[in-house]
C-alpha cells in the first residue's frame, strides 16, 4: 500500500463513519496492518492510505494488532509529552503534548462495541490516529518554535506529498 505523505490532500479530509463492516473492509485493514509492520510503525489511519473512512490499525498494546472502527474518546485525563512521529512524515519527530489517559469506544472487526481505557503508548497512539480521521496531523499540535525548527524537513516531505495528489484514492463499497 502507498502511504500518503504530508502535502497529500487526502490527509486533510474528514472521514466518514463505517456503516457496514464488509469482508472487503476487513481485508483492506489486514493490508493496512501489513503496511504498518513493514513501514515500520505502530499506527496507520485510513486517510494515510487514501481511504476516508473512520478506521485505523494500531500495534501499541504488547504486540496486539487492533482494527479500530468508528472510534471516539469518551473521557480524557492528565497531560503528557512524548516525542511523536508519523508514517506520513518520514524521519520527522517532535514533542507533542496530549492527555495522558483516555477512555474510548469503538467497533472491533466483529462489529462489537469495545470500551477500553489506558495510558502510555497505547493512549498516545490512539489519539494520534484518531486525529487523522478529522484531518488533524501531529504537527498541528506543535508550537511556532517547533514548527520553525522543522520547516526545511517539512518542505522536503511536502514535495513528495504533493506529487501523490494525482494517485488514485481507494473506493470501497
Ligand atoms: Zn500519523
Strand content of the residues, in percent? Answer: 25-35%
Uncertain runs: none
Specify the number of helices: 3
Which fold name fills CATH's third level, the topology?
Peptide Deformylase
Q: From the helix content, strand content and strand pairing, which structural class follows?
A: alpha+beta
Radius of gyration: 15 Å
The helicity comes to 25-40%
Quickly name the level 1 CATH class: Alpha Beta
- Report, as a whole number of angstroms, the end-to-end distance: 18 Å
CATH architecture: Alpha-Beta Complex
Number of domains: 1
- What is the mean predicted local confidence, pLDDT? 95
The global form is globular
Q: Looking at this structure, what is the CATH superfamily? A: Peptide deformylase
Largest sheet: 5 strands, antiparallel
- Output the strand order for the largest sheet: 1-2-3-6-7
Which H/E pattern describes the elements?
Answer: HEEEEEEEHH
Which ligands, by name, code or SMILES, are bound? zinc ion
Give the number of DSSP strands: 7
Amino acid at each position: 500500500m502507498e502511504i500518503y505523505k504530508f502535502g497529500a490532500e487526502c490527509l486533510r479530509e474528514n472521514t466518514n463513519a463505517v456503516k457496514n463492516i464488509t469482508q472487503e473492509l476487513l481485508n483492506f485493514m489486514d493490508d493496512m496492518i501489513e503496511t504498518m509492520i513493514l513501514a515500520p510503525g505502530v499506527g496507520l489511519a485510513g486517510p494515510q492510505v487514501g481511504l476516508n473512512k473512520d478506521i485505523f490499525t494500531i500495534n501499541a498494546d504488547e504486540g496486539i494488532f487492533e482494527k479500530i472502527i468508528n472510534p471516539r474518546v469518551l473521557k480524557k485525563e492528565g497531560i503528557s509529552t512524548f516525542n511523536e512521529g508519523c508514517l506520513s512524515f518520514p524521519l520527522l519527530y517532535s514533542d507533542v503534548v496530549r492527555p495522558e489517559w483516555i477512555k474510548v469506544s469503538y467497533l472491533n472487526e466483529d462489529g462489537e462495541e469495545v470500551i477500553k481505557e489506558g495510558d502510555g503508548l497505547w493512549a498516545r497512539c490512539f489519539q494520534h490516529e484518531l486525529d487523522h480521521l478529522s484531518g488533524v496531523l501531529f504537527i498541528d499540535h506543535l508550537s511556532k518554535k517547533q514548527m520553525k525548527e522543522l520547516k526545511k524537513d517539512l518542505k522536503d516531505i511536502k514535495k513528495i506529498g504533493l506529487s501523490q495528489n494525482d494517485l488514485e484514492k481507494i473506493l470501497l463499497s
